[in-house]
Amino acid sequence: MNEMAKTMLKIAVWYGVHGLKIIPIYGMRKRSFDGKGVLVCGCGNKECKPPTSGKHPMIKDWPNNATCDPVIIKNWFEKVNDINIGIVTGVASNLFVVDIDNKNDGHTTLEIMEEEHGKFPETVEVLTGNGKHFFFKHPGFPVKGVTGVYKGIDIRGEGNYVVAPRSLHFSGNRYEFKGDQAMGQILIAHAPEWLLKVLKAKNGTQTTTARSGNSNKGKTEGWMPLSIPDGKRNDTLNRVAGSMRRPGMEWDEILGGLKVVNANRCKPPLSGAELEKLAKNMCRYSK
Ligand SMILES: [Zn+2]
């Protein structure tokens, strides 16, 4: 075992000791023969590419084989040098995760959410390769995994997992705890009430597949922000107009819908003339 592998084993055992169910995930390793040190997935499959690489389980039937048992964890982790750690989310580990994906503008959505509801409470926060994970205590009702609960924001709950510090992301960055958070002094906070309401409303609706990283990103419901700031208003209203034009609505019907969304969500609202222009422009596209 190299030094990093020893560190990963130590961390994985530590998670287990603290009641987090963990699974071994294929790590990223440097492909050395081309001299460039390109990172490839440890599974060895040439077809394994982002967003899957460095994120899929090394064991079969992971939901049933995830464990807190240090002996089993040691057995998994001492055999491989390039290995990542998965933490199972949901009631299994008594937590769920809000996954902010900056590639899908999650950071912008997070800003909008914070403006609307205030910042998330201090909690375990992990910097991932392209965003953040916020950890929250399990609320006691099942938390369904939802891809795109808002644009660029996923929920990881029952039957999901997240890749955990200090795993190596395909970007070359390691997953790290934010700032001065350190092993042994991490407190997972209760989720804010408004978020629990959203999760409850999502129960029984679309669920994610059982892995972190999902091909349905951006195609799902829930992209409509509660508050649309200056700079995002035209784009968002255009998307709304498009969703009305496709099934065949005419410009005056579209305008009616835009007026309501504009009044309820745009901060500050666009003018009536701007809305009219948006609706008319949209109708240049065929139904
Ligand atoms: Zn792979």
Q: What features would you describe in this structure?
A:
This protein is an alpha+beta fold and 287 residues long. It folds into two domains: 190 residues, no CATH class; 68 residues, no CATH class. It has eight helices and 13 strands. It is elongated, with a radius of gyration of 22 Å. It starts with a helix and ends in a 5-residue tail after the last helix. About 6% of the residues have low confidence. It binds zinc ion. Zinc ion binds next to loops.
Helix-residue proportion: 25-40%
Strand order of the largest sheet: 8-9-5-7-6-11
Element order: H for helix, E for strand: HEEEHHEEHEEEEEEHEHHEH
Number of domains: 2
User: Spans of 5+ residues with little confidence (pLDDT < 50)?
Assistant: 206-221
Strand content: 15-25%
Integer average pLDDT: 87
Please tell me what the overall shape is: elongated
Largest sheet: 6 strands, antiparallel
Rg over C-alpha atoms, rounded to the nearest angstrom: 22 Å
Bound compounds: zinc ion
Quickly give the structural class. Answer: alpha+beta
Count the beta strands: 13
The number of helical runs is 8
- Report, as a whole number of angstroms, the end-to-end distance: 61 Å
